[in-house]
Amino acid sequence: MTTRRTFLRGGVSGVVAIAIARYDSPAHAQGAKVSETDPQAQALGYRQDTTKVDKAKYPNHDAAQKCATCQLFQGKAGDAWGGCPLFAGKQVSANGWCSSYVKKA
Ligand code: SF4
Q1: In a mutational test of the pocket of ligand 1, which residue from 42, 72, 76, 90 has the highest number of ligand atoms less than 8 Å from its CB?
Q2: Is 82 left (phi over 0), alpha (psi -120 to 50) or beta?
Q3: What pTM does this model have?
Q4: Is residue 1's pLDDT more than 60?
Q5: What is the pLDDT of residues 13-57, one digit of tens each?
Q6: 4: pLDDT confidence band, cut at 50, 70 and 90?
Q7: Atom of ligand 1 nearest to the CA of 44
Q8: 38 lies in the same domain as 23
Q9: Which of 27, 31, 95, 98 could form a disulfide with 46 if both were Cys (CB 3.0 to 4.6 A apart)?
Q10: Whose CA is nearest to atom 1 of ligand 1?
């Protein structure tokens, strides 16, 4: 039997679930652009322009690698910026790169 209390409890958890779903959705990823001076960006060697990556520090980097072709990029094809789970709530440049790059399958 559904009592008022269980109904309200279900309603509250439903609202929380919707809030979490909205937070996780790519649409929500339209936040600020990741700054290269952000500590996480520096730790991962993120650059907004893949051609500016430090070759001495990342000898395996190839200028053909960029966020737009990375498995983790959440933007659509043609988007200049998009989300990345490594920078939650922020956007990375489609022409950017970081040391966690994984080529899209
Ligand atoms: Fe770009 Fe991929 Fe690094 Fe995210 S993980 S910043 S999409 S290269």
Answers
A1: 72
A2: beta
A3: 0.73
A4: no
A5: 444 343 334 444 444 446 899 999 999 999 999 999 999 999 999
A6: low
A7: 3
A8: no
A9: 98
A10: 67
pLDDT of amino acid 18 = 38
Residue 69 domain boundaries: 31-105
Q: Ligand 1 pocket, 100 CB below 6 A? A: yes
Amino acid (1-letter code) at residue 5: R
CA of 69 to the centre of ligand 1 (A): 9
Q: What CA dihedral angle connects 47, 48, 51 and 57, to 10 degrees?
A: 0
Residues 64 and 101 in one domain: yes
Do 54 and 90 lie in one domain? The reply is yes
**Is the pLDDT confidence value at 6 over 70?**
no
Asked if residue 51 and residue 18 are part of one domain, the reply reads no
Residues 89 and 78 in one domain: yes
